[in-house]
Write a structure and sequence with these properties.
4 helices
């Protein structure tokens, strides 16, 4: 199983990256952020109990988009 990931990367490394691909990536990232802020118990707990907001949100992607 560990050998397959490098093979997948090698196979797709030269594939072109379009604006539509980037748009889809940003939307998926937005859904990830939405899930974390609305449903993830650990994130919600940290934010509600006065945790370090910078640390809690450090796992979030720097750029996202919502449809």
């Amino acid at each position: 199983m560990l050998k397959i990931y490098p093979e997948i990367v090698r196979r797709n490394f030269e594939e072109p990256w379009s604006a539509e691909d980037r748009e889809e990536q940003l939307i998926r990232r937005g859904r990830y952020v939405e899930f974390n802020l609305l449903y993830d118990r650990g994130t919600i707990f940290g934010l509600k109990t006065g945790g370090n907001v910078d640390s809690i949100l450090s796992s979030m992607p720097p750029e996202v988009k919502w449809p």
